[in-house]
Amino acid sequence: MKFCSECGHGVALAIPDGDNRPRHVCIQCGTIHYQNPKMVIGSIPVWEDPENDGALQVLLCRRAIEPRHGYWTLPAGFMENGETTSEAAVRETEEEAGAHIEIGKLFTLLNVAHVHQVHMFYLARLLDLDFAPGEESLEVQLFTEQDIPWDDLAFPTIRKTLELFFADRVKIRESHDKQGYGVHCHDIVRPMIAPREPD
Amino acid sequence: MKFCSECGHGVALAIPDGDNRPRHVCIQCGTIHYQNPKMVIGSIPVWEDPENDGALQVLLCRRAIEPRHGYWTLPAGFMENGETTSEAAVRETEEEAGAHIEIGKLFTLLNVAHVHQVHMFYLARLLDLDFAPGEESLEVQLFTEQDIPWDDLAFPTIRKTLELFFADRVKIRESHDKQGYGVHCHDIVRPMIAPREPD
Questions:
Q1: Integer angstrom CA distances of residue A32 from A15, A193, B150
Q2: Scanning every residue of chain A, which has its alpha carbon at the shortest distance from the alpha carbon of B177?
Q3: Is the N-terminal amide bond of B133 cis, ω within 30° of 0?
Q4: Residues 6 or more apart from A133 whose CB is under 8 A from it?
Q5: Chain B residues near residue A21 by CB distance under 8 angstroms
Q6: Among A60, A132, B120, B188, which has the minimal tally of Cβ within 10 Å of its Cβ?
Q7: Which pLDDT belongs to residue A178?
Q8: Which residues are in the Nudix hydrolase domain (chains A, B) (predicted)?
Q9: Which of A3, A95, A118 is the closest to B5 by Cβ?
């Protein structure tokens, strides 16, 4: 930020009265420009194949945009003004995967503090198989747990969410008290883009 | 937003290529200025009085700033870049109430879409009684459930969080399977500032 979005004059870093950290403050009109973390919201679209003993598959998108062009992700994107978190999850799933879902519960809330983001993923039930890549996806595909491209996932929050999802599946199958999916909050402290393992 | 924060020229509303909603776009340098919801994060600081049979009290702050000057709130504020959601809850509790807490689990996630905010409150255990109002508080006080100033709470998300907290307390006391606090996600659709009842 170099200029004031209200009056067009220059901004300078200064600690406003009553504040305790530097902000971009307009040298002309005094407007304080706060910068705050953003939310990235997505879904875990699940298809339980009725013709294959209910075998579970998850819908992933291969990214057509940077960062991480060509890598696989759950459908997700920046939350917009005027919508709720679950509305954002439904919209992003529609936009990126052309997929129609019944949205479920919040499943993960993952802090990615070093990039000023909070990622949230909702459980979701895919309503039909009528999906197709949107503008930001190269392809969209259903994967069983065994087939998920674990080494080609776009972001640590995608891996974490999928790992937690399949771990909860095991617990749900094994539990005798009809335990449901949890809500999982974690902090991602590694870099967003993990270096690839050497061949 | 009237001016580009990158080059200082004017901005105009336009739908960028590949996008589907109007954004502020610089007419000179083409920078797209996205506007996204903000997170307001706080805590429910709980004191269980060891000298009074563990009677539970919650710490509230009376606001010294607008909006809702003079009304009672849980300590909360805008999340800052570079911190996690629970770090934000600890910091706001320290800043607004001068209170030291052990942070617990996420308890509420409340969408307030019409003001482009998501509010989150964490369970917290007050570590000592050495609290004092910060710059944004007129006073800070412990309240039992019966004493909470229900008609003078600052925001619907504060009321909702406190209602859910005390409802979960009842369930926890009555449950025989050591049920814990839940994670509650709701959308607040009424106006943020409720009109006062006529005298």
A1: 10, 32, 33
A2: A177
A3: no
A4: A61, A62, A64, A96, A97, A98, A139, A140
A5: 80
A6: A132
A7: 66
A8: 37-166
A9: A3
Q: Supply the pTM of this predicted model.
A: 0.93
Q: Tell me if A134 sits within 8 A of A93, measured CB to CB.
A: no
Residues in chain B with pLDDT values less than 70: 54, 176-178, 190-199
Check residue A191 and give its pLDDT: 60
Residue type present at position A164: L
Q: With contacts defined as CB-CB under 8 Å, which chain A residues touch B4?
A: 3, 5
| Residue A174, helix vs strand vs coil | helix
Q: What is the rounded distance in angstroms from the CA atom of residue B16 to the CA atom of residue B33?
A: 11
Q: Which CATH architecture has domain B1-35?
A: Single Sheet (2.20)
pLDDT tens-digit profile of B86-125?
Answer: 999 999 999 999 999 999 999 999 999 999 999 999 999 9
Q: Would you call A1 and B2 a contact, using CB atoms and an 8 Å cutoff? A: no
Distance of alpha carbon B136 from alpha carbon B155, whole angstroms: 16
What CATH class does B38-187 carry?
A: alpha beta
Instruction: Name the residue with tokens 């679950």.
Output: A86
Positions of chain A with pLDDT lower than 50, given as ranges: 199
Q: Are strands A76-78 and A137-143 parallel, antiparallel or unpaired?
A: unpaired
Q: Which residue of A1, A21, A26, A85 is the best one to mutate when testing the B interface, meaning the one whose CB has the most B CBs within 10 A? A: A85
Contact B180, B172 (CB under 8 A): yes
Yes or no, beta carbons of B2 and A3 under 8 Å apart: no
Taking CA atoms, A75 is separated from A123, B95, B164, B172, B199, in Å, by 12, 37, 31, 36, 51
Q: How far, in Å, CA of A184 to CA of A175, rounded?
A: 18
> Would you state the pLDDT for residue B107?
98
- Bridge-based pairing state of the strands A32-33 and A76-78: unpaired
